[in-house]
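Recap from last week: sequence in, structure out.
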Amino acid sequence: MFNGGDIYIAEDTISEIRKRFPMVNILPVFAADSHKILDKMFKLDIKKICFDFNPERVIAELKEFTEKVINAKDTKEERYIINFYETQKLFLIDISGTLKKENLMPLKLMFKNYLGDKIKQLRGVLYIFNNTDDKSINFQNTWALFRFWEEIGMDYSKVYYLAINDRIKYEMHKYIEPIGVGHMTDLLDVVRKTFPEYSTVTDEQKLFDIASSLLQQHS
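Predicted structure tokens:
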């Protein structure tokens, strides 16, 4: 389905297709992305979105999407584990295993209750994708992880993710980075970005010690 930017027409069209053909997989193609577009597609349970009208790109994305749907039937689930904690005014979220939307939807309330008023003093929020099943990464799971931060008081410019897996980085770059979420290459990068007082420090051992102290709180 192609759309030049009218999210409401796209929303109505997708809803109508779903009523007539409930088993059909839909790949919407938009000229641009925005929080409103992404959230409406999330609520419509869209699994993948294309933001490039180039026919070759659309066909490639459609082929990838179809193959992923077929292969998903034979995918073995890994135990989903999430650990989160606040230390030195940084909120860390460590995620491993297979992502499922039903496991991720309660995170908004969990984080809001856990942080309370502390959210106003946070230096930032960091997601660590540690042994996360990259085959379970899609738009629905990705958006479920990040969509609520502004709503509960944290600007997206202070939300980051740490990942080395190419598939995970691709999904994050496509759906999450456009709303302001930043990619961190390593923990030293995290320290430089979230602790301005260390941004000019060139002694990597000192930065490593600070980064290690963040993880030592993880239990």
